[in-house]
Structure formats: C-alpha cells, structure tokens
C-alpha cells in the first residue's frame, strides 16, 4: 500500500491516471500531454505500474497503458480524482478520446 500512496503523491502521476480513466493511451499519447522529458515520463509510468495502478501492453513498437481494473488502489485514485478540480477536465478529455477511438474503429 505504501507504493500506492507514493504513486498518488505526485501531481503528474495523478494526471496520468485521470487521462487513463476512460481509455488506454500509448506512451506517446501520454507524453504529448505533458511538458517533461521522456525519461521523466517513463519514471512516472514505472512507478504507477509498480504500484499496481496501471498495466502496459507492448504492441509492435508502441507501448499502451491502461488502468489496472478493480483494485482498492484504483478505487482510492478514482476518489481522489473526483475531489480534485484539475482531474475533472482531464477525465473529460479521456472520455472524449475514448469516444473518438470507438468512432474510428467503426
């Protein structure tokens, strides 16, 4: 549980979780939403994955990230996102991305 709290203590990591709340994203898609170096983003993603909050899936040359479903840590993260004003806009963007992906696959 200590890893979960360490992961949630960082604003960029909470934002990543908000972006992944409705859809999976590639590492590049996530990076495009932040002004940080790729090594810094990779470190944040590793911490989130180590805490069991996200999972990764390599497809060809791309790595896709998604929330790790149905665990206490993500329930806690969802609660924090619900009360965090910054996360609301990010979750809305995540939902729009999910809708766009569904339309593209039809």
UniProtKB/TrEMBL annotation:
Gene3D superfamilies: Winged helix-like DNA-binding domain superfamily/Winged helix DNA-binding domain. SUPFAM superfamilies: Winged helix' DNA-binding domain. It comes from the Bacteria. The keyword Cell wall biogenesis/degradation does not apply. The keyword Transcription regulation applies. Keywords: DNA-binding, Transcription, Transcription regulation. One of its GO terms (molecular function) is DNA binding. It comes from Undibacterium pigrum. NCBIfam families: HTH_metalloreg. Pfam families: HTH_5 (PF01022). This is ArsR family transcriptional regulator. Residues 1-87 form the HTH arsR-type domain.
